Amino acid sequence: MLDSFAVSVADLLRSAGETFVLPRFGRLADSEIGTKAGPTDLVTIADKEAEAWLTPRLRDILDGAVIGEEACADNPALAVAAGAPHAWTIDPVDGTNNFVKAKDRFCSMVALLEEGVPVRSWIWLPLQRHLYYAEAGAGAVLCTDDAPPKPLRLASRRWVIGDLQGAASVRDVDEPEKTRLRDILRTMPGRWFPGSVGVLAARIAEGEQQFLMHASCTPWDHAPVDLLCREAGAHAAMVDSGARYHAGAESAFMIAPDIEAWNMLHRHLWPNGLAA
After folding, report:
1. Would residue 275 count as lying in a domain?
2. N or C: which end of the chain has fewer CB within 10 A?
3. 243 is in which domain, residue-wise?
């Protein structure tokens, strides 16, 4: 069950979605869409306005650093504050490319970190009105308008590679490693690319998908995703060390249903071990 703290943050996410995000869905003018690091790295007026509105209001709930995706795009040095005693992360529209194309696979995400470790996570799918919430040590739940919070806990089973469904992003991998990984991933029958790490994490937490691998990490993407999946019973860890996610981490990150499946997927993607 969500406590008053969790409810306050969830209410902010809903309000931001209703005020800044949903009114622009399918209605964006060309002048309201821009780019950041490259031509496919999109940002919209909805991203910017929702983050700007959420930032002071999250600080009102608990004072601390705020690491927002759009603020960090303008000033990357802000991300260092993710290791503060208390820090918020904001991804106002995760899946911006889908949002721009009026596709429904997008969400808004917030996480609360303590010294870089995610301790609370909120993922809000505004079109579906689904809230995924997790608290460290207290589990994960799905909240909808018409039912009590539903605990999320993955069932135990034995996995084989051909059963795993999910997605990987190797965009930040150098050649020839990028091509090698892509060739392996193309042989996996269960690949599903939602275009939103938050949407994929929600499906993993519900047991509908099984894996996620990203070649690099950002706190606004991976802090909320890590905690939701962990609290639902999945195994999430850094690919190079096997350590749990920390906001200072930037290397590859992977989630699988349990540690055995995680190790199996690791061996499948890197059969000769990681390159030095």
Report:
1. no
2. C
3. 161-269
